[in-house]
Amino acid sequence: MTQQSLGVAFEEAVLPHMDAAYNLARWLTRNNQDAEDVVQEAYMRAFRFFSGFHGGNARAWLLTIVRNTCYSWLKKNRSHEPAAAFDEQVHTEIIEGQNPETLLLREADAHSLQQTLEELPSTFREVLVLVEMEGLSYKQVAQMLGIPIGTVMSRLTRARHRLRESLSPLIRSQASLPIEANEDLQDAHAE
After folding, report:
1. pTM higher than 0.85 for the full model?
2. 55 and 114 in one domain?
3. Is the pLDDT of residue 178 over 80?
């Protein structure tokens, strides 16, 4: 394969997955700029070794490279530092008819979820991101991480359980909001 045809094949197979690569890097590094650096290095590695890619799932192949690049980068750059806080602002789409209170509650919910995801151990967080956010199959994740499918499933179950446990007070408080609002209305009508 010529260098030019290799470049075209690389662009067709790997470039469409840049968003997934960035998403994984962002969740593993917990920093936007670091994620950009990691993705750039991962793409350079992927291009360098693309001749060894013999078809299959390019997305899973690339995400494996991104994951390995992330951990190498973290070991080199943050081996003695505590984990940096993920500081990406939550973007919400403003929908007509939403009041500021609704927008504020939505942003608070997104922040709580983000914070809870950040607090998960990286082994749980990466499986959750790969399966739930990137849509990879258990088999693909198992191959990427070099672990049995059962381990993928148990890590995912544990990650979901920890998320549910951490977010249950928030969920309960939201479930009770309409009830309380209804009670206030009933009290107002009784007077």
Report:
1. no
2. no
3. no
